[in-house]
Model the fold of this input.
Amino acid sequence: MESFFTFLERRVSDSSSLLCIGLDPHIGDLPSPTAAAALRFCIDLVERTAPCAAAFKPNAAFFEQFGAPGWDALKRVIDGIRERSRHLGSMIPVILDAKRGDIASTAEAYARSAFQELGAHAVTLSPYLGRDSVEPFLADGEKGAFLLCKTSNPGAHDLQDLPVGVAGEPLYVTVARLGRSWNTRNNLGLVVGATQPEAMARVRQAAPELWFLAPGIGAQGGELEPALRAGLRRDGRGLLLPVSRAIARAADPGQAAAALRDEIVSIQYRLAGSGRA
Amino acid sequence: MESFFTFLERRVSDSSSLLCIGLDPHIGDLPSPTAAAALRFCIDLVERTAPCAAAFKPNAAFFEQFGAPGWDALKRVIDGIRERSRHLGSMIPVILDAKRGDIASTAEAYARSAFQELGAHAVTLSPYLGRDSVEPFLADGEKGAFLLCKTSNPGAHDLQDLPVGVAGEPLYVTVARLGRSWNTRNNLGLVVGATQPEAMARVRQAAPELWFLAPGIGAQGGELEPALRAGLRRDGRGLLLPVSRAIARAADPGQAAAALRDEIVSIQYRLAGSGRA
Done:
């Protein structure tokens, strides 16, 4: 058996990429507001960007908004990624961005939905309900989860930055430590926004070996080099960079993904050369 | 326009009930593990318990586990509740227990899914991403949301009880205060477990006028009178008690619901008589 992050690392090697292509069929980006249009939008993006994708990340919300046909489209998108992976000869992990979080018996049903029914390899989760809400997603080491830790939205400040305990360190640092202690099967990572490199550096310090899913590059305005400097592990990996609109809305998404992948690689080399990794 | 909680209060009056019937089609409770069986299970429960239901609360996970057909069954269950309400001559609110929580543009898609596509009247939400992740669900005052505050599962302790700030009050009290400040349209409530009356009393102190959705009665072992004493507002309302397995697994779910509704009413009277409310 191979752990989720061993699987992801193989794909990172095969693609020389830390890019995670977000599949977010916003209604405004579709020719018509239908599940069929969402499916076509995503499959086209998968076809064009697969060679540069370390992972794909469909967000459940943009499929749920179309009801049952949307849910069917989501399953077909994941099937399409599996098929494209076979042609490439390298399986591409699918991270279902669902941000679920419920008590254990309910979490088991969500895990069944994500892993068995849809065929995703990992999910994003909220930490608010604690360990027993996360464990059903970690029981099978081949499947993984990314725990929300420090997000890149304006409201992140409301809870995540609250000073906790005697030391008064921010809540997100506590969540990073908890996540680290729950990662007994090499299948738990953290969601850490790329827009605040100082916060990311603190999370890296608290969880030196965990993988981060770090949104915020592109549409949300995060800069690449500070994020890589703050977030990469000492081995020069451990950071997955989701991008959706910046690639989906490019004139040529395949070319935009390749250019971004290459830019990341060149920064990785530069940081390695300067003794960063 | 009527706010979500004005709508709920009317139904509470019509039914003399604070019971919220949970619709959780656990696979183990179904004759076969299919969406069709889940639909029949729920519709049967709706038929039998509707007269005693202040609200119904389907949990999305138990439908999602069946993929697109499950999503379709969920929609039919909500349609069925609307139809049953018409026969009763009193609309019964549907709270979609989904515990969603994502950045604003994604939250808009989730709100569209819950309110427009499925036809629910309210949802449960995670607070971890802060205000902008909650606002899209509150924009229309006729629709409501319950924010996870203090839950009844073992892992609740991991984050929710952490001491925050100079005063060192638990995180869940901070969430209660935030929720109170975000409730500008009388459509935001809190999820507060019924199993810990002391914690519930602290939340009631921090948010005197908010509605609580208080799971934990029945299968999870919470006792009714201490919960009502701690959680009722000064007007003797403000507390919605979800029960699922204890009613669904009863020999006669309709009778079990009526008995529980009556027990709650008698405790309400007793507390009112003792000057509690």
Remarks:
- Chain B touches chain A through 60 residues (CB under 8 Å).
